[in-house]
Specification:
It contains twelve helices and seven strands. By secondary structure, it is of the alpha/beta class. It has a seven-stranded mixed beta sheet, sandwiched between helices. The relative contact order is 0.15. This is Helix-turn-helix transcriptional regulator. InterPro entries: CheY-like_superfamily (IPR011006), Sig_transdc_resp-reg_C-effctor (IPR016032), Tscrpt_reg_LuxR_C (IPR000792), WalR-like (IPR039420).
């Protein structure tokens, strides 16, 4: 098996004789396990990894470079995570797994504007999901038929949705740092999780405060939630918090075949 570990790679089709690495970002363990089993049973695909939150997703993309990543819409309602993932690896195919609560023109407009390549219902049956992954990987664009009318409506109301969409003023690393600040980690704990120096983390925090016009860390987190930069864990997500000293595998779980 050839692992997709080159960030400068370009997409390749089945004729290249390679297995497509698929990863997922979802807070529900049983759902991730189901996706893993489905992918591993599918010819031409292998399971590249999994993450439970946006911070973990960015680490997963940096460390493993999967070909395709499935993102739970509940973790990325404004497209911020998807935009950062694609910016970090233009060859990466990002597929939004759309929850019922996000089946709206506004969400789909934001997802498309962020560069998401495909949208599939999170409740889709296995055959439809596999077909969607294949189509998205080959064509770099796919919308499940059940979402097609919403996409059309999203394009018609693009200007209104653009006004509603929260902006992302933070860099990729600042976004990760802010998520860990929201989890209650101090600079030393954040440094251990991201493999950075404490001084570098301190610099990122200062930049976050400046960009968000925040008085302090708590104020920055409050502003970020209100602006949609940070989002609350979906209702069916695990009640899990990071602790100081957590290593990357505690946030990102991955394995290869």
């Amino acid at each position: 098996m050839t692992r997709s570990n080159d960030p400068t790679r370009v997409p390749q089709g089945p004729s290249a004789g390679r297995s497509v690495g698929v990863a997922a970002v979802d807070p529900v363990p049983i759902y991730r396990e189901g996706l893993s089993g489905l992918v591993q049973r599918t010819q031409g695909m292998h399971w590249a990894g999994q993450a439970i939150n946006p911070h973990g997703a960015l680490q997963l993309a940096e460390q493993i470079h999967p070909d395709v990543i499935l993102v739970d819409s509940g973790l990325d309602p404004h497209g911020h995570l998807s935009k950062l993932l694609i910016a970090g690896d233009p060859a990466l195919i990002v597929i939004a797994l759309v929850r019922e609560a996000n089946r709206t023109p506004a969400f789909l407009h934001d997802a498309i504007a962020a560069g998401v390549h495909a949208a599939i219902p999170r409740s889709a049956e296995s055959r439809r999901l596999v077909e969607g992954i294949r189509r998205a990987y080959l064509d770099r664009r796919y919308v499940d038929p059940s979402l097609a009318t919403l996409v059309s409506a999203a394009r018609q109301s693009a200007s209104a949705a653009a006004v509603r969409r929260a902006q992302m003023p933070l860099s990729r690393r600042e976004y990760q740092v802010l998520q860990l600040v929201a989890e209650g980690l101090e600079n030393a704990g954040i440094a251990k999780v991201l493999y950075l120096s404490v001084e570098t983390v301190r610099t990122h925090v200062k930049s976050i405060l400046r960009k968000l016009s925040a008085r302090d860390r708590t104020h920055a987190v409050t502003i970020a939630f209100r602006a949609g930069i940070l989002v609350a864990q979906p209702d069916d997500g695990p009640e899990q918090r990071l602790t100081p000293g957590s290593s990357a595998p505690g946030v990102v779980k991955y394995r290869s075949r």
